[in-house]
Structure formats: C-alpha cells, structure tokens
Amino acid sequence: MNEEIPEPGRAPEEPQARRGGAAREGNGLGREEDGAPLTRQRADGGLNLKPSGRVSVPEEATQPDGATVENPVFSCRDVNVFYSGKQALKEVSLDVGRRQVLAMIGPSGCGKSTFLRCLNRMNDTIAGARVTGHIHLDGRDIHDESVDVAQLRARIGMVFQKPNPFPKSIYDNVAYGPRIHGLARSRAHLDDIVCSSLTRAGLWEEVKDRLSSPGTGLSGGQQQRLCIARTIAVQPEVILMDEPCSALDPIATARIEDLIDELRESYAIVIVTHSMQQAARVSQRTAYFHLGELIEVGNTDRVFTNPRHRLTEDYITGRFG
Amino acid sequence: MSSVAAIEPAQASGQRLRERAFRTATFAAALLVLALLGGVALSLLLGAWPALAHFKLDFLTREIWNPVTDKFGALAPIYGTVVTSFLALLLAIPVSFGIAIFLTELAPVWLKRPVGVAIELLAAVPSIIYGIWGLFVLAPILQRHVQPWLIDWLGPLPLIGRLFQGPPYGIGVLTASFVLAIMVIPFISAVMRDVFEMVPDVLKESAYGLGATTWEVIWQVVVPYARTGIIGGVMLGLGRALGETMAVTFVIGNAHRIGSSLLAPGTTISASIANEFAEAVGDLYTSALVALGALLFLITFAVIAAARLMLMRLDRRALSSV
Ligand SMILES: Nc1ncnc2c1ncn2[C@@H]1O[C@H](COP(=O)(O)OP(=O)(O)O)[C@@H](O)[C@H]1O
Ligand SMILES: [Mg+2]
Fold it and tell me: Domain locations in chain B?
C-alpha cells in the first residue's frame, strides 16, 4: 500500500470506489439474500485488510469487524446523496445488524444525519435531494417502485434531535401511528398499545394519570421518551435516532441510554451521536464518518481502543471535531 | 495631523441639529398616515351624513334605489358585495389551497420558482385588465357553455335550483364572482404558501417517520398548524374582493336589484359608486353614494384588521415554538 502502517483503514475506500457500479450490477440482487457470500466477497474485495484479525480473534468471527454483518437488517451499497447537486454522502457501504446498536460518529456536517435519513427515505421529503446506490431492507430494495414509502417508514422508527411531540395529548401522540395504520382492533386494543409503548419507553409511571394532557407540557427528557413511545407504538423493526440526547440533561440522557440498551433486545438501532462516551456506552458497532465518507466501521470496542485510520484516531482522541 | 481629530463644537451642534430635524421629519411622515386615515373616515362620515340622517336604518334595509324620486336603499349593493365576495372565496379557497400545497409540499424544485413568480405576477395585473378580459372573453364563454349547463342541471334542483334559473346573460353576479375569484387566488395562495412554509420540518418529518402519507401529513400536521394563517390569508383575499371595483363594474351588469338567480345582473357597493358618481345630481344622491362608500370602508377595515390580527398571532406562535 501507499502509506505508513497506521493507515490501513484507508485501503478499504479505494478498491471499493474503483469497483463501483460494475460490481454492483454484476452481483445483482441475489447476493443480498445470503449474507455469507456477501461477507466473503467484500473481504476479498479488500474491505477488510486484516483477515488475520478475524481469524485470530474468536468473537470477531461471529461479529465481523467491518462494514458488513451476517444477516443484516439494512444492507447499503455505494450510497451517494446529493443536495441540489452538492454531494453530501460519498459511496457509503454499510450494513446494520439485527438486535444491536450501530453508532455513527464524526464531526458535524460529515453526513451522519444524511445517511440515517436515507434508511427511511426521509430524504425524499427534501426538495432537491437525490439518493443513488442500493439500500436493502431485509433483502428488498427500498427504492423499488413497488415499495410503499409510507409502509416502509412505518417499519422504521425515527427519533429526532429535538423532542418534537405533536401538539396533541400524550395519548394521541402515541396513538397517532397505530391510528393511521389501523393497527388497533378496538379502543381497548389501542389503550393496550399506548400503555405498553409508554411502559417500554419507561414513561408509563410518570404519565399514566395525565394521558389527556398535552405532550408538549412534559419535560425535555419525558418528551423524548414520549417520542420513542410514539415510535415503538407502530412496531417498527429498526429505530433510527438522530442525536436523541443532545437537547437533554445528563440524567435524562442516562435514562434514554438505558432505554436504548433495553430496546436493543427487540430492535436494530442506529444512533447518531456527537458524544463518544455515549457511542461507547450504548453501541456494539461504531461507524466514523468524515466529509461525507465512511472512514471506518467496526466493533465499538475495537474502534475506540484500536482505531485503524488516522482520522478516526484524531477524532476520538479529541484532536478535532 | 493626528488621526483622531478633536470634534469642533460647532460641528457637533450642527450634527445634533440635523439629527433632530431628521427625527422630526420621519415622525411627521408617520403621523401623516394616521391623519390621512382619520381624514378619510371623517370626510366619509360627513359626506354620508345627509343620506344617513334622512333615511336612517331604512338605508341599510331597503332595496329601492331611485334617483328620480330621491329614494335610496343600500340593500342591493350590500347584497351584491357580500354574495360576489362569498362566492369568489368559495371558488378561490380550494384552488389557492391546492396551489399552496403543491408549491410547498409536492412541486419539484425547478417548478417552484416559476410558479411562485407567476403567482406574484398575476397579483400585479391591474384590475381593469381583468375587467376587460372578463367582459370580452370570460362572459361569452360562460354565457355559451357554462350557464346553459348550470340552468339545465342545477336549475331543477330543490332549494339551490333558484340560484341557477333565468336566462344566461353572460354578465351578472356569477360572472363577477368568477372574475373576483381569479383575482384573489394569487393573494390567498401566496399567503397560504408562506404559512405552510412556516410549519417546522421536524413536525412534518415525525409524522412522515411514523409512516404518514403526504395527504395525512398535510391534513393532520400542516393544516392544523397553519390554521390561523390560512384564515388570515383568506381574510386578506376577502378584503380585496370586497373593495374590487373596476373588474366587477365591467361584468356584473350594474342593476340595483336583488335577483333570486346568480345568473342575473346585480351590483356591488364599489361598482355603484364608480358607475353613478359622475352623473349624480342632487345632494341626497351624492350623499347616498358616499354613505355606500362609508359602509364599504367599515366592512373592509374590519376584515383587514381581523386578518392582520390573526397573522400576527401566528407570527408570535411561530417565534415562540422555535
Ligand atoms: N436539507 C439540506 N439541504 C442542503 N444541504 C444539506 C441539507 N441537509 C444537510 N445538508 C448538507 O449535507 C452535509 C451533511 O449534513 P448532515 O448529514 O446533516 O451532517 P451531520 O448530521 O453529520 O452533522 C452538510 O454539508 C450539510 O450542509
Ligand atoms: Mg446531524
């Protein structure tokens, strides 16, 4: 390779970019259905330049350290995003594993939110935004014409940076999703859904006596948990969180982090965070973005203890960002 | 020479004088607006007084308008003004709503600007042009193609049937309403577009994120949030429709009559004034026309004030929710 040893992480980018579209078309859709050949292929293609690492460390064999995972929920290949022609995301290839938390870190403006918003096609709502590349959810291309984008988004929950309950009652906030999708058979069933969602979000005890008061009257941390309850009421498979704690105080943050840890048992979670401690605490995998590129991704422990790329190292040691 | 030269006392006092003169001048200009408003109201009231004192409440409740016998009642123009404005809004609101929703939520970027600019240009077309167009283009089309159809299909209906009976004149209350609708659409849709754009993206996105369709987001998030703004925009349009003169004068037929049919000719307050002022002889006649003007002033003032109030409240809420 071209440079000094601490930078093998750069290597994945180059061959991958060169393979580009040809590999994509050559492999077609079939490969998404089977995780194993995909993993092998990416490794051959140079995504993991340290196969020795994977052989010698047992737990990394079950949790491959890199952009791909076994049986992913999301499988993204060569994703580019342009805002009015300006490229915000460059050739990102990344899988999201089941029942685990993927943290995305990086300096602000590096495309974390942009990538997150690709996953539920939220970028469709931005005029002038264009997304290219392949994003498969459970093996199905989310950009396929047959995909109903509303149904897709119902399968993928999203929690935003600023808590943003609807200007409705607490009950109606949680019931909103089940109502528009007709998930509840009866009023009692809807009550059930609301109760269990609030319970899972750790908010039930605090609000059970005032379900009809406005959601906007809660504290910031409570509002954010309400938004999480609203999200899980639709029974999504994946939950996307965009800096969910950045507007919260440390205690509220700790509660959300505990909640994320619990939710991981049922959902795949992708969380954008500007706090490296938070990424280290809640995630199993961490992806580092820089100027629209995915620089490095791997098991969280490994990325934080032994970053392979100079940029990652600089960022997590606080030299910039 | 040092760079920080001492300021001469004379220079400083000159500066202060200029500052004072400037303040006084702008203050006077501001006062002038208030004085004008008060002056207009006062002269309207004074001019209208003879007629109001003579006819008392009859002026508001009677349909008769007879310059020969000096009997004047404002009911027909009031009716015409209210009905044409109401119908114009009825037609314009859905269309404006559609335009605004399309522009804010659905239109591709390259289409947004041209359509937005077109709307602003439409708003700038002088009303006399709408009048000419209404008389020479729209009225014949309505007379030949639309009104016969209305008479055939809606005329026989119970209750509302009466509104669509009689001969198709071409000009009349309905035609005036059409022209007015076309004239207020740019205003209403521009305001609606602006208030829809004020709806925070996060609110829309959290509904989208739960799997809401664009339709659901519009009706359950955008419209409730923008409600007061929508009403404010409609009121602005109403204010314009109420006072519109030239275009209406061209196409309404100028008959001091309350026809049971919308196809019949009628008149509005402003159309009556424009039509008759030049030939009004006699103090009572002139005063009756001025009284019509005072009425219009009151109605429009109230509508615009209400609209401003609503838009103001919306602004404040938008600020407080940031
Ligand atoms: N709606 C948008 N329109 C235009 N440019 C955008 C938009 N959203 C994000 N960008 C640009 O895309 C880049 C990545 O933004 P973002 O994904 O929000 O970064 P991050 O979440 O990592 O801070 C930035 O340069 C930003 O200016
Ligand atoms: Mg962001």
Answer: 58-321
Q: How confident is the model at residue B288 (pLDDT cuts 50, 70, 90)?
A: very high
CB contact under 8 A, A128 and B211: no
Q: Burial-class residue A101 by CB neighbours within 10 Å (0-12, 13-18, 19+).
A: buried
Which is higher by pLDDT, A40 or B8? B8
Residue nearest to atom 24 of ligand 1 (CA): A109
Please answer whether residues B127 and B247 qualify as being in contact, where contact means their C-beta atoms are separated by less than 8 angstroms. Answer: yes
Task: Specify the DSSP element, H or E, that contains B125.
Answer: none
- Structure tokens that stand for A254 in this block: 């700790």
pTM, two decimal places: 0.75
Domains of chain A: 64-316 (3.40.50.300)
Question: Mean per-residue pLDDT for B177-189?
Answer: 94
Q: Give the span between the Cα atoms of A162 and A196, in whole angstroms.
A: 24
For residue A246, what are its two tokens?
A: 């950045």
Q: Which of A227, A79, A259 is nearest to A158 (CA)?
A: A227
Residue B306 pLDDT > 90? no
Q: In which residue are the tokens 């004074």 written? A: B46
* Separation of alpha carbons A121 and A104, rounded Å: 18
Fold of B58-321: MetI-like fold (1.10.3720)
Radius of gyration in angstroms for the set of CA atoms belonging to chain A, rounded to a whole number: 20
Burial state string for B147-170 with b = 16 or more CB within 10 A and e = fewer than 16: beebbeeebeeeeeeebbbbebbb
Pocket of ligand 1, beta carbon within 6 A: A 83, 88, 106, 108-114, 126
What are the E-state strand segments in chain B? Answer: 65-66, 71-72
Q: Which pLDDT score is estimated for A81? A: 96
Kindly give the number of the ligand 1 atom that is closest to the alpha carbon of A128. Answer: 3
Cα(B162)–Cα(B176) distance, integer angstroms: 18
Label the pairing between strands B65-66 and B71-72: antiparallel
Query: What is the chain A residue with the closest CA to B214?
Result: A150
> Which residue of chain B comes nearest to A216, CA vs CA?
B321
What tokens appear for A75 in the block? Answer: 């499988």
C-alpha B244/C-alpha A60 separation (Å) is 77
Closest CA–CA distance from residue A149 to any residue of chain B (Å): 8
Q: Which two tokens stand for residue B144?
A: 């030949």
Determine the Cα angle at B222 with ends B189 and A233, to 5°.
165
pLDDT of res. B3: 54
Q: Of the candidates A72, A81, A85, A175, which has an alpha carbon nearest to the alpha carbon of residue A121?
A: A81
Cβ contacts below 8 Å, chain A against chain B, sum to 65
CB B257 within 8 A of CB B77: no
Q: How far apart, in whole angstroms, are the C-alpha atoms of residue A297 and residue A287?
A: 4
B212: left (phi over 0), alpha (psi -120 to 50) or beta: beta
- The residues, ordered by sequence, that sit 6+ positions from B125 with a Cβ below 8 Å of its Cβ are none
Low-confidence winner among A35-44, A169-178, B72-81, B155-164 (lowest mean pLDDT): A35-44
Nearest CA to ligand 1 atom 9: A114
